[in-house]
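Reminder: ligand-aware prediction takes two inputs, not one.
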Amino acid sequence: MAYRVPRAFPVTVVGSYPKMPEALEAIKLRKKGVIGEEEFHERVKPAIRSVVEDYLEAGVDIISDGEQSREDMVVYFAERIQGYEIGDWVRVFDNEYFRKPVVTARLEYVAPMAVMDWEYAQSISQGRPVKAIITGPYTMADWSFDLHYGDRRELVLELAKVLRREIEEFVRRGAQYIQVDEPALPARPRKEEAELVKEALEILFKGVEAKKIIHICYGRIEKLIPYILEFPVDQVDFEFKNSDFKLLPYLKEYGFDKELGYGVIDVHSTRVETVDEIVADVERLMKLDILPPEKIYLDPDCGLKRLPREIAKAKLKNLAEAARRLRKAYGYED
Ligand SMILES: [Zn+2]
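Here is what comes back for the chain with zinc ion:
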């Protein structure tokens, strides 16, 4: 069944959703070694089904699998890439301990990591596209401890090569939206770092035929916008609500012209934004006259995993209602 994504102000999500009990249980059993990878993903399915049902009821146009399998966005992938070891607490310096995944050998792609959950979500989404979402190589490298490459740039680019294989698996199965999450970039908001991310994205996305998205959240990224505009992506997704839209004037200043994932839901607050409030927050962007409604995707600031399920769903419902109202106001039929 084909679903037509609205032309203006499509509603989407960044990725994670509150964990369902079946997912928590499956993660626990997987960690204990009681179940293998295949049974793990089988047991997560009811959790994904609940997430998809919530999205459909709320009215989200481009959904996700809710990242139900992922206890941690970096460890999840590290556990499935050859060359990584997930130690217990690793002593790095005298008094510094990391529970970071450790790179101990050359990194190699083994098998699909996140594709199975995506595929299941897609099979029950009633035609709505499901975003394929992976943690980006820059963030993977940043939150890992490297005992093998000894060079951060090399590690990032090697990770990009491995993760590209996963993107190819997604595209082969028909994914139309591919999102790479790079929340670590704002920790070092410098030109050289943005250029390293760009280099990695070129490896990830070269020749990939799907909508290419990068999600970056929090921190001081305003000065990075000119470099981000050079990234080989179609869409950039930013958090706005939590930082009171301080990024807006910079979009104008630097002539932002890519599609924008406009984060208008605060994922750190249990207060449910009203429809009026969301409409007004979108109007703040429209007033700047930077982008047409076709290039504005509405979503929460970041993943919803920290919120209670009912709150997350209520926020999405109001977001979808605000999008409907905005479409009408701007003369779009769908
Ligand atoms: Zn985020």
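The two ends are 17 Å apart (CA to CA). The pocket of zinc ion is lined by residues 14, 183, 215, 217, 302 (CB under 6 Å). We will return to this case in the review session.
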